Amino acid sequence: MIGQSLWCGQALTRTIGRAVWRRGQREGRVARFAQIEPAPYTGSVCGLSVLGHLRHFVTMPEVNINHLDKQQVQLLAEMCILIDENDNKIGADTKKNCHLNENIEKGLLHRAFSVFLFNTENKLLLQQRSDAKITFPGCFTNTCCSHPLNNPGELEENEAIGVRRAAQRRLKAELGIPLEEVSPAEIDYITRIHYKAQSDSIWGENEIDYILFVRKNVTLNPDPNEIKSYCYVSKEELRELMRKAARGDVKLTPWFKIIVETFLFKWWDNLNHLSQFIDHEKIHRM
Ligand SMILES: [Mn+2]
């Protein structure tokens, strides 16, 4: 795949989950994922399952990360915001410590967000996480999922402005959306969801996730270290993707699956009337 600037898959219903992508498909048919050219990796990427044996003798958090993608390992040093079950800030810790199952089992919980970006045709931008990602590699998910960091700008809680600033930052970092194209004012905070899920024997998630909606046509320039492919989908195309996931043909992130199954379609049906769903009090426990 390296050396080809852009891949266009076949129609969504036939291509998702297949290792071979056919290029040269013409524009304008069924939604399709554009596959991103991987950057030359400076480190090696390997299946995390090989690290599984380490858990029997290492003392956390001394997990062996030598075999993981170097760019992704650097991000593990970022400081996430630790919170209690009611989303009150109680401290800060590294992204690494926040995502180790051993710490999650002890109750470590952090603040996160999930962006759902719709274009003016009301299609939802999905991404497939790169194989370099440490948690949930290769999984299909919503537009952008990440964390506000422990700095003054992203800690500010009034109207979730800190979380919305973080979303603007990550839309640029992952998808290459210019900062001026999606300002925090254009990001709508809907509600919060608390979920917990394991990625593998070492890594997992335990987050209170701010659900953020954006409605705008944007310029994309994705980072291949973050994103393997992306696509705008209609509701029916997302339903087809869900059926493929149910058959085991593709993998979804757990938070995306939960949100799609519980909330997404009723929100999507009411993109012009979202105020009825805005709830900044309740934290939905999934
Ligand atoms: Mn997280």
From TrEMBL:
Catalytic activity of the protein: isopentenyl diphosphate = dimethylallyl diphosphate
What GO molecular functions are on record for this protein? Answer: isopentenyl-diphosphate delta-isomerase activity; metal ion binding
- The reply to whether Transport figures as a keyword in the UniProt entry is no
Major localization class? other
Q: Tell me which positions the record assigns to the signal sequence.
A: none
Domain Nudix hydrolase intervals? 108-258
Which EC number(s) does UniProt give? 5.3.3.2
Q: Its pathway? A: Isoprenoid biosynthesis; dimethylallyl diphosphate biosynthesis; dimethylallyl diphosphate from isopentenyl diphosphate: step 1/1
What does the UniProt keyword field contain?
Cholesterol biosynthesis, Cholesterol metabolism, Isomerase, Isoprene biosynthesis, Lipid biosynthesis, Lipid metabolism, Magnesium, Metal-binding, Peroxisome, Steroid biosynthesis, Steroid metabolism, Sterol biosynthesis, Sterol metabolism
Asked whether the UniProt record includes Cell wall biogenesis/degradation among its keywords, one would answer: no
Essential cofactor(s):
Mg(2+)
Q: Where in the cell is it found?
A: Peroxisome
| Species classification | Eukaryota, Metazoa, Chordata, Craniata, Vertebrata
Question: What's the protein name?
Answer: isopentenyl-diphosphate Delta-isomerase
